[in-house]
UniProtKB/TrEMBL annotation, chains A, B:
Residues 2-260 form the Glutamine amidotransferase type-2 domain. This is Glutamine amidotransferase. Its EC number is 3.5.1.118. It comes from Azomonas macrocytogenes (Azotobacter macrocytogenes). The keyword Hydrolase applies. Keywords: Glutamine amidotransferase, Hydrolase, Transferase.
């Protein structure tokens, strides 16, 4: 299995604190040593850093820590390989251009005997995750001929997630740089930080932050993760089948698909 | 204008030496201070590093220098902005997935009043370069329904290049990770390094290398650039309208389109 990290904020925000905690689970406090990746939206652009090494040993991860990038949407992932060997093409997040935007996706779980129909987007690697991402984008392309409001995409995305979940475990994060979509099949937690801000301490590393000192009263930042990253804060678990759409740090709309 | 850097090798090779020279032209020995990018193929995967800062001042460039990556195909670019503001989405190289491969492209030149028909691939940014890349891939998709030998792509690619050249200056590098294609409209030089290897000294930085000491007798490495990067070596200029296809460091086929 793997772990996911997502962020939606209303101001460019540095994910360093959460990233530091997550990276420890990549071979130190967690077993997810088969590569990691993190994608930062910068305007319409996307900066993607990936490595096939355990994140705790990764020089690229050190760079990302030394060079904090501020972003309004971030998708990160640490991998414990199941389907697909350990190599760059099997490392999340995955990216494709659709309608002139960079769409980015990461998956936690695994899908058994998963063979979606071939469409416009083809996987480059061997993972069930990238297959699902390509299939999701192929469905979106089939449903609409050009850019549409995120709200109109929800039925297409949730129907796809519901189907994938029948093949196994499918927790995912998806973004096009404007919004962040999440789906929980088994495990996903969230926390929204806004004024009044308090302190927090990482569970996986000896690091604390007083958000009061590094934010303004108007900041709103939501972090999504597979498991709580901090002490001193209350993370909310998503229900199985729960989906949510985030923009500028706030949940725009959320819902839950019927149980199988 | 901008400068291009390309490499094709028959063994994973470190481009650090050439990269070091090119980076100096990004704000130091050259005026190309509006961002830079370099893409390294790693198997079927692609590592892309980009920055909107002048390469001489770029922390990401320092990382790439500290962390030499070996690759069989590399495409690099330093930018002096003409069309399109300075931001990540306007920074070369550009990447798209086609038929399950990462296609990567960089352009030197500028196309005036360039409006190719809209197709499957859309530009994310505002540059004429990304428009041309998307149009090129759209033409390839229209011409073939799935992966074909590079040799069969040549007529489609060279016809596109011939048309683009009519709108201005179009020197480019294109790869899908298997082969490297180049087109010269005004400026492109090449050098192939193979046994017996000699020493070389950068023109833009105080750095020399004795290739004899860092290679094996079987290594073949070709470097393409906008202008000679070294002293003590003879670089060959491509003719206007000259195109070439490279694999494993060797030129597989080359030709020249008729003059306008």
């Amino acid at each position: 299995m793997c772990e996911l990290l997502g962020m939606s904020a209303n101001v460019p925000t540095d994910i360093l604190f959460s990233f530091t905690g997550l990276m420890q689970r990549g071979g130190n406090t967690g077993p997810h040593k088969d590569g990691w990746g993190i994608a930062f939206y910068e305007g319409r652009g996307l900066r993607l850093f990936q490595d096939t090494k355990a994140s705790v040993d990764s020089e690229v991860a050190q760079l990302v820590r030394r060079y904090p990038i501020k972003s309004e949407i971030v998708i990160g992932h640490i991998r414990q390989a199941n389907i697909g060997r350990i190599c760059l093409v099997n490392t999340h997040p995955f990216v494709r251009e659709l309608w002139g935007s960079n769409w980015c996706f990461a998956h936690n779980g695994q899908l058994a005997d998963f063979h979606p129909p071939k469409g416009f987007y083809w996987p480059v690697g061997d993972t069930d995750s990238e297959k699902a991402f390509c299939d999701m984008l192929n469905r979106v392309r089939e449903a609409f001929s050009g850019p549409v409001e995120a709200e109109r995409l929800i039925p297409v995305l949730t129907r796809a997630c519901a189907e994938y979940r029948k093949s196994g475990v499918f927790n995912c994060l998806l973004s096009n740089g404007d919004w962040l979509f999440s789906f929980c099949s088994t495990k996903l937690v969230e926390i929204t930080r806004k004024a009044p801000f308090g302190p927090a301490r990482l569970k996986d590393a000896d690091m604390s932050v007083d958000f009061q000192a590094v934010t303004t009263p108007d900041d709103v930042v939501t972090v999504l993760a597979t498991e709580d990253l901090t002490h001193d804060e209350t993370w909310t678990s998503h229900p199985s089948g729960g989906w949510s759409l985030w923009r500028h740090g706030e949940c725009v709309v959320r819902g839950q698909i019927e149980e199988q």
